[in-house]
C-alpha cells in the first residue's frame, strides 16, 4: 500500500478502539507503514500512536517487540515533553511496516480486552490533561518506556502507557493520574530490587572473602 493516506481524516466521535480496529480494516495484505498510521490520526496523534505501539507490549513476558517499539515511543513522548504539536519520526521509522497480522491481533486485543478502558474513561479532571500537566504525563511515559525495554518486564509499564495514553486521548485526568502512579510504582519497585541485588551481591562477595582470606 502506498503512502497516500491524507492527514487528519479520523472521526473525532470515534473511540480509540474503533480507530485501532479501523486501521486493521483499511490495511492491505502488507499492513500499514508507521507513516500511514500517523497520517490517519488528527490532533490525538501523540496519544493514539503511543497507545497503538503499547498494545502489543501488554502481552506478558514478551521479548523483542518492546525493545523495538520503545524507540518510537521515547521519540513521541519526548516531543510531547517539549511541547511539539504534531508527531515527528525519522524517515527510517516511518517506512517500517506493521504487518496485517499484527494489526489484526492489535484490533482483536483492543476490542476484547480494552473495552473497559473506553467505557470507564470520559472527560474529567481535565486540568491534568493539558499544558504542563500533559508534558508531565509525557515524562511519566518516558519513565514507563525505560522500564518496558527491560527483558520480561513489559506488561506493567505497558499498562501505565495505556492508561496515560487513553487519559490524554479522552481528556481523562483520572486515567492520567492512574498511569503516572503505575509508572512511578513500577520504576520504584525495580529500583528497590536492583539496589537489593547489588547490595546482596556485595555482601556475599565480602562474606566469601572473609572466609577464604
Notes on the structure:
Keywords: Membrane, Transmembrane, Transmembrane helix. Pfam families: ExoD. The chain crosses the membrane at residues 45-65, 173-206. This is Exopolysaccharide synthesis ExoD. This protein is mostly helical and 213 residues long. It has one domain (16-212). It is built from ten helices and two strands. The protein has helices at residues 16-26, 34-39, 45-54, 65-81, 91-94, 100-113, 115-120, 132-148, 155-170, 173-212, and strands at 32-33, 97-98. The chain has a two-stranded antiparallel sheet. It starts with 15 loop residues before the first helix and ends with a helix. Residues 1-10 have low confidence and may be disordered.
Question: Strands, helices and their partners?
Answer:
Blueprint: H1 16-26, E1 32-33, H2 34-39, H3 45-54, H4 65-81, H5 91-94, E2 97-98, H6 100-113, H7 115-120, H8 132-148, H9 155-170, H10 173-212
Helix pairs in contact: 1-6, 3-4, 3-9, 4-8, 8-9, 8-10, 9-10
Would you kindly provide a brief summary of this structure?
The protein has about 210 residues and is mainly α. Helices cover about 65% and strands about 0% of the residues. It has ten helices and two strands, in the order αβααααβααααα.
Structural classification = mainly alpha
* Radius of gyration based on Cα positions: 19 Å
Q: What shape does the CA trace take?
A: globular
Order of helices and strands: HEHHHHEHHHHH
- Oligomeric state as shown: single chain
Strand order of the largest sheet: 1-2
Biggest sheet character: 2 strands, antiparallel
Report low-confidence residues grouped into runs of 5 or more. 1-10
Instruction: Specify the number of helices.
Output: 10
Q: How much of the polypeptide forms β-strand, as a percent range?
A: under 5%
Number of domains: 1
Helix content: 55-70%
Termini gap: 69 Å
The tally of beta strands, per DSSP, is 2
Amino acid at each position: 500500500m502506498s503512502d497516500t493516506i491524507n492527514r487528519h481524516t479520523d472521526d473525532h466521535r470515534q473511540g480509540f478502539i474503533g480507530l485501532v480496529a479501523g486501521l486493521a480494516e483499511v490495511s492491505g495484505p502488507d499492513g500499514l507503514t508507521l507513516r500511514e498510521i500517523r497520517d490517519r490520526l488528527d490532533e490525538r496523534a501523540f496519544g493514539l500512536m503511543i497507545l497503538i505501539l503499547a498494545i502489543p507490549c501488554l502481552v506478558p513476558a514478551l521479548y523483542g517487540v518492546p525493545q523495538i517499539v520503545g524507540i518510537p515511543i521515547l521519540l513521541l513522548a519526548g516531543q510531547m515533553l517539549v511541547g511539539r504539536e504534531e508527531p515527528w519520526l525519522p524517515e527510517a521509522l516511518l517506512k517500517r511496516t506493521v504487518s496485517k497480522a499484527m494489526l489484526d491481533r492489535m484490533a482483536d486485543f483492543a476490542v476484547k480486552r480494552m473495552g473497559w478502558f473506553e467505557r470507564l474513561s470520559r472527560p474529567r479532571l481535565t486540568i491534568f490533561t493539558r499544558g504542563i500537566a500533559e508534558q508531565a504525563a509525557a515524562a511519566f511515559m518516558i519513565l514507563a518506556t525505560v522500564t518496558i525495554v527491560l527483558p520480561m518486564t513489559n506488561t506493567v509499564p505497558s499498562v501505565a502507557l495505556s492508561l496515560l495514553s487513553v487519559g490524554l486521548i479522552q481528556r481523562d485526568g483520572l486515567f492520567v493520574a492512574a498511569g503516572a502512579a503505575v509508572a512511578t510504582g513500577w520504576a520504584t519497585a525495580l529500583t528497590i530490587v536492583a539496589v537489593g541485588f547489588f547490595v546482596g551481591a556485595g555482601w556475599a562477595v565480602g562474606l566469601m572473602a572473609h572466609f577464604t582470606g
